[in-house]
Structure formats: C-alpha cells, structure tokens
Amino acid sequence: MADPNFDSLVSAFKKLGLTDEKAAETAKNNKLSPILYETYRLAEENSVDLNKSFGSLLYNLASTITPEAREYLSFISKEILNGNLTSNDQVSEAIKYCKKGNPQTTYDDFKSHCGVGIVISDAQIVSKVSEFLKANNEKLVSDRYRVLGLFLSKIRQDPELRWAKAETVKATLEAQVLEIIGPKDERDVPVKGKGKGKKAPKPTGQTEAKPAATKPKVPSKYTPASFASMFSEGDISKLHKPGENPQISDKILKEHLDFIKGSVITRFPPEPNGFLHIGHAKAINVNFGYAEYHKGKCNLRYDDTNPETEEVKYLESILETVKWLGFKPDQILYASDYFDKLYELSLHLIEKGLAYVCHCTGEQIHESRGGDSMGPRVACEHRDRSVESSLLEFKKMRDGRYKSGEAILRMKMDLEDGNPQMWDLVAYRIIFASHHRTGNKWCIYPTYDFAHCLCDSIENITHSLCTTEFIQSRKSYYWLCDAVDVYKPVQWEYGRLNVTNTILSKRKLLKLLENNIISSLDDPRLYTLPALRRRGVPAIAINGFVRELGVTTSQTTIEVSRLENHIRDCLNSTAPRLMAILDPIKVKLTNVSKPIELEVPFNPRDVSFGSHKIPFTNTLFIDSSDFRAVDSKDYYRLAPGKTVGLLYAPGPITCTDVVYGEDGKVIELICKLEDGADGLPIPKPKTYIQWVPYSPEHGSPVVLDELRLYNNLFKHSNPYDKSVVPDGYLSDINPESLQVVKSAVIETGIYDLISRFANDQKTKQHFDDKNFEELRFQFLRTGYFAVDKDTLFSSSFVEACKGPQSNSVEKLASTSKNNVLVLNRVVTLKEDPNK
Ligand code: ATP
Ligand code: MG
C-alpha cells in the first residue's frame, strides 16, 4: 500500500473528529501520524461508524502507546472499536497491560484488568458522591471550593468507582458541590500571603450554606403528622374534653352528648366577602388541625349573614383554598341554613323579655352607651317596651314595613356590666338585599353577635376557636346561648397572625385594586392565599410556617422572610433544576462542528428526579452577568482571554474575541471549547456557569414571554403604621415590587417537565383544574419559579399538554410559539442579606 499523501492523512484525521487545524498539524507529525493512520484504516476496514468518541480514544491510543505495546496496536484499536474500551483510563490500562506480555493469550485477565464490561451507572455515581459529601459536609462548608481536588481524588479511590467515567465523577461532584454551597464568591478568593488552605473570612450577613439533605422527599417537618406538637403543647393542649363543658340543664347536656358521641367538633367560619389570607391559614390549621389531632370533625361554615358584602366567587374561592391547603371539611354549611331557626330563637328571646325592638339611630345608641367621653350608660326609651309590642314591631321589620335603619332588634343584656359586649348588642338589622341562598325571603339579617354563637350551638361545636379580638365577646356569646336555652359551646381564643411588609385587611386590599396598584386580588405580591398559590408557593410551606409558630394568644407580626425560608426548604427538595438565562449573550464556539447530545440531571444530587437531553452545538447563551469586558483577579467567570466552566458541557470555554455593537454593547462572544482535542492541556476553570443551548432544530432555547420577579409590595415593614408612613400605605408602594423580564431563555427541559406533569395520572386532574402553579422549577442560581395562570388564559397550552401524543416534547415545543409562557418567581435562592 502506498503511503498516504498529506491530503488523505488530513481527510482521515478529520473523520476521526480532529479540527482542520489539528488534523493538518497531526499529519505533519511523522511519529504520530502513521500510528493514527493505522488505527483509522482498521476502523475503515471494519466499517466502523466513526463518531467522535472513537476518534478521541484512537487519538489518545496513538499518542500515548509505548514501544512494548506497539505490536498490539491493532488489537487495542479493535478493543476500542468493538466498544470494550470506552474511556481514556481503560486505554491507558490496556497499554500498561502489554508490558506483561501478549494480552490476546490472557484475554480474560486483560479484560478484568481494564474493567471491560463494567458499567457504572450515573445513578451509582450520583449516590456515591452524595454519600461522600454528606459524610464530609462540615469540611465542605468550611473549606468550600478549596477541597474540590482532594475530594475528587478520595472519591475516585472508592473501589466501586474504579471504572466510573472520570469526567462523569468530576462533573457530578462539581454539580453537587455547587448545589450545596452555591457558586464561588468572595469567600473563595485565595487569601494572599496566608498560605494555602487558610480559610477566607466569612463575610457578615451571608446565609450559612445548608448541609446536604438526607432525603430528597419533602422534609418530614411538612408532613401532616408533624403538626401534632401544635396541639400537644401549651394552653391549647389543656382545653376541656368534649362533653365536659357545663350547660344550664341536664337535658341540653344529654342531647349534646348524644349528638357528639365523644368527638371534638370545630368549625372554620369565614365571611365570604373576600379571599382568604395568610392569617386565615392559621385559623384553618388551628380549627381543622385541632379536630384532626383529636380524631374529630371540622365544618366549613360560611358566615353569610350580610348579603351586601358577600359574593359567590368568594364562596368558591374559600372552599378551593381550604382544599388546597390539604383540609377536607366534614360538612360545608352556611349560617343562612339556620335563618329560620335563628328567627325562631329571636322570638323566644323577645318572649322571655330579653330582646326589644329599638328605633334609635346609630348616634343615639353611641350616646346612650356613654358616648365619646365614656360616661355612664343609659337605657333608651324603647328598652322597656312590652314583649307584645316588640313582637309586633319585629314582625313588621321582617315584613318589610320599615326602611333600613328605622328599627333594630337589640338584646336586653346588662348596661351596668363593665364589658361593652353586654350593652344591649344588636341582634337583627334591616337590609334590603338579595341573598345568594335565600334570595328575597328576608329583609332582616342576624348580626355576627347574634348568629355566631347560635350557629356554633346548632352544630354542637365543642370548641369554638377564634382570635383574641373576640375575648370580650365570650361573655355575650355565653349569655345568648343561655338566654335562649340552647347548648353552649366553649369559646377559646388564639392570637391573630400578621406578616410584615404587607396588608391583609380586605378593605385596604380593595383600595389597592381601586388605585390600580394591583390588578387582581390574587396578584402574587399579596399575601392572600390565592395570591400565594398563584405565585407558586407550596401549600405545605404555608402550613409548615403556621405550625412552627404554634398557637399562642399573643398577636404576632412575623417577618415574611420566615415564610420564605419555609418555601425554600420545601422547594429545595421537590423542585427540578433547569438552566435559565435572564439576560442572554450569544456565545459562538469556533471549534465545535458536530452537535452532540448531553444528558443533564434534573437534580444533580438526586437521581430520582430523572434527567433530560440537551444539545451542545457551536452556539449557546450565557448570562450577561457572567461576562466582564474588564477582568479582575477576584473575578472567576468569563472575560476576554479567560476560561470558565459550563455546567455539564464537554469542556470549559475560553473567550477569544468579543463582538461589540455600534452602541458599544456586547453582541457576541467568540470562544473556544477546551475539550483537549487539539492535544493542548485543558485550562482549569475557576468556576462553572450555566448556559442554554442554541439549536433551532431542537426547539432550543425556549423563550419565556415573561418572567415576573416579585419583591415586597411595600417599602416599609409596617406600611399601615402612620408614625412610620404618615401618608398612608398607598404612598409606600415599592416601585420595584414587580420586575418583568422579557428576554429570558431556558433549556427545553421545561417541556420534558410540563409533559411529564401532564401525563402523570395523579396530576391529570390538576391540568383540568388548571393547577399549573404546581409546576415549579429551580433555575440554577436564580431562584424558584412556577408557571403563572396567565399562561393558561392566553393560550392553548393545556391542550398541547394533553391528549394521546402529549408525551411528545417536540409537540409542546412546536406549539409553544402560539403560547404565552409566563413564569413567576416564587422566591429567590437565598435570603437577601440587605433585607
Ligand atoms: P379580615 O378582617 O382580616 O378579613 P375577618 O376576621 O373578618 O378577617 P373572617 O372571614 O371573619 O375574617 O375570618 C374567619 C376566621 O379566621 C375567624 O375565625 C377569624 O378569627 C380567623 N382569622 C381572620 N384573620 C386571622 C388572622 N390574621 N390570624 C388568625 N386567624 C384569623
Ligand atoms: Mg369577619
């Protein structure tokens, strides 16, 4: 066979995957080129499809083969081409083996020496690395990136990992370390003159890196069983047993005991005049939780006694929210169910001489109760009218013969009592409004003071749990039950929950709406429960937050950051990871010709999250914050002439040129992939950054229409405090409470996740209910995100996700152009130290 000429050498070497430049250089190398060409001919003779990995193994063999092994070149090459030797490590062991003699005669020994056929799965690597990091967590947290090299060599010494791919072990270690301690920062700047290995001082205000979680599942403190301590400790653990509360007659007690059969019965009694808020989450946990803890029942009872303020949409939202938080009402009841019964009881009260119709105006009542000067109370002229007269007048009220405000029914209590709740409270007032359940049947409606205790009584509530502003009402509550001779529940009060930097009052929330500060009551900056849900906050995080605070009587205002920590805790163990770029710069790789496919885990620390494929081509995006035109020593990411690692990529990249636009802005970075194919040593990157591939044929990147980043709605932690915000909460709006990013790009893994979610039988229902907020991701280094409901209202997204072909990611990708993809930031990855 004639010696191949220069051109055919170059062409052969290019087929092995070398770049033009590298192929030419190798062809000129008289020592290397004949050996490499021989391996190439072998491949061709055996008609092996040369992909890049064969090429680089053959190149490695040709360039490192020793004189003793030279005679076995074709044997080793064939071992590569038949897939027995798949890593550089194995090739170098094969070369070493030839020192001992002919590998063909002791073939079995050769195979075991080189680890042929031993497959170490990615899952094994992930779990080994994870185990190691768990055992060495303290050292990692204190010494950070300085221990990476040491850790890698120790992990590689694990006999089970002897034949694991070195690149995979290294990439896995790096990814897990990043996950645990975050990217490199000022703590990782080597301390000058202090010798190697000295700790850099920890900057103040930094949050402590979290130790490796032992379990990938939801942390156990968020499981339902975990809230037992909320009821097994403190005053609430000392409440009476069902049936132990005294009644005014044995008959009443007996009927009650017969009804409850020893079980606890509680209720959650919202007024359907607005969305529930974070404070209600406490009330829900207290009421449903107490019943659950005692194996009893809890009713959802709508306190729908004021038709003027109530709306059906709120009724629906309340039930949905209760269910979302994970509670199931034993019965769904309405105060209006009892309007007839309540009317009867009011007649009974009048007949007993304990109620009267009064025609005083609001002002007159105020004056007769002592007025602004809080002077002595005086009875009004109506208080002593006869029972007959009150019965007659009350029926006239019921029959619509009075206008609203002309007459009220008042309870005849005790004006001498020190408790204002005993000063002849109003029992019924006239409201001409249609009721969502009783229509126009009534024009008189019972007040909270009249209805609440009697509804509790009718339902045989054993523990009427409410907030401390009702402490004074306890007396009137008991008074009325006894006055009408019915069962009397026990009222017990706990402190309201408030959080900083927000307002919860329905009236004030409506003001925000009227002033166009928000566009809906589920605006994710609010702390209504529908808003938190829309933002993507997991229900278990809210429950966990509320339960951790416990049930005390003190009214508490809690830092929102405490809720945020619970959200992070939950999402850290449940949200798959994706790479996303908020402000992309294009990167062109000059030495990548063929696209390759990379397998990227959805969570580098937990294989149960699965993985997805992403293309690696000659174009990709990085974030503008990961590049600096002017480099500095303490800067570890990309800059002209500098090398940085790309997570999961086949090698780091070095920036060789920067293309600027006319406005002086960076348009594109020209970089080189450092994969060692040119035979030059691969520079060591100081840190790793995320990236998103550009490959239109793979539908990559996915462009997000909107990424909504939320911050506190108010500038002050207590916007309702006039001494801090004299012009009122409307003047305290944080102009940066909502930032909308329109340029973000993300890897196609989001479609894998959406399609997986849509196809999960368990979540199919969610899709029908448009429960998209359950789709949550961690964007590496950026935060946790959830799909906003706007995605659904403006698109056929759900349709694209459902149906027989729904598992096709391509389908989603192709329909995505017609769909608006909006994501909300649920919470940042770390607490903002400036907050
Ligand atoms: P708001 O005025 O904030 O809307 P509310 O008391 O009028 O509250 P309701 O619908 O009457 O709202 O509340 C239903 C239940 O939830 C009541 O038992 C109430 O005590 C309780 N609740 C309301 N706000 C809070 C809070 N911030 N913390 C704890 N429980 C609360
Ligand atoms: Mg109320």
From TrEMBL:
Enzyme Commission number(s): 6.1.1.18
The Glutamyl/glutaminyl-tRNA synthetase class Ib anti-codon binding domain, residue ranges: 575-673
One of the record's GO molecular function terms: glutamine-tRNA ligase activity
Keywords of this entry: Aminoacyl-tRNA synthetase, ATP-binding, Ligase, Nucleotide-binding, Protein biosynthesis
Glutaminyl-tRNA synthetase class Ib non-specific RNA-binding domain residues: 8-165, 169-256
Region annotation Disordered: where it falls in the sequence: 186-221
NCBIfam families assigned to the protein according to its UniProt record, in alphabetical order: glnS (TIGR00440)
Family: Belongs to the class-I aminoacyl-tRNA synthetase family.
Protein name per its UniProtKB record: glutamine--tRNA ligase
Organism: Smittium culicis
The organism's taxonomic lineage, starting at the top: Eukaryota, Fungi, Fungi incertae sedis, Zoopagomycota, Kickxellomycotina
